[in-house]
């Protein structure tokens, strides 16, 4: 396991397609809709596991929006 700071931001588009599709499906099952919370949910599920999606259920919209998709 590599443990260091990344050289650049890690984004949804950087995920392996199968990993991204699985994480997006998990987030959808938890009711997370399109937008910044979905992108954040996908990254968290991909990196931390399926249970990470629970943190986004009924979460308020973010006050400041980053771009986890790096579009």
Average pLDDT score: 88
Q: Give the distance, in angstroms, between the N- and C-terminal Cα atoms.
A: 28 Å
The residue ranges in which pLDDT falls below 50 over 5 or more consecutive positions are none
Shape: globular
Rounded to an integer, what's the Rg over CA atoms?
A: 12 Å
- How do the SSEs run, as a string of H and E? HH
Number of E-type strands = 0
Percent in strands: under 5%
Structural class: mainly alpha
Instruction: Quickly count the helices.
Output: 2
Main sheet summary: none
- Which range best describes the helical content: under 10%, 10-25%, 25-40%, 40-55%, 55-70% or over 70%? 25-40%
Features of the shown structure:
71 residues, mainly alpha, 2 helices, 37% helix, 0% strand, globular
Ordered list of secondary-structure elements with their pairings:
Elements: H1 17-29, H2 36-48
How would you describe this structure to a colleague?
This protein has helices at 17-29, 36-48. Helix 1 crosses helix 2. It has two helices and no strands. By secondary structure, it is mainly α.
Short description:
This protein is an all-alpha fold. Helix content is 37%, strand content 0%.
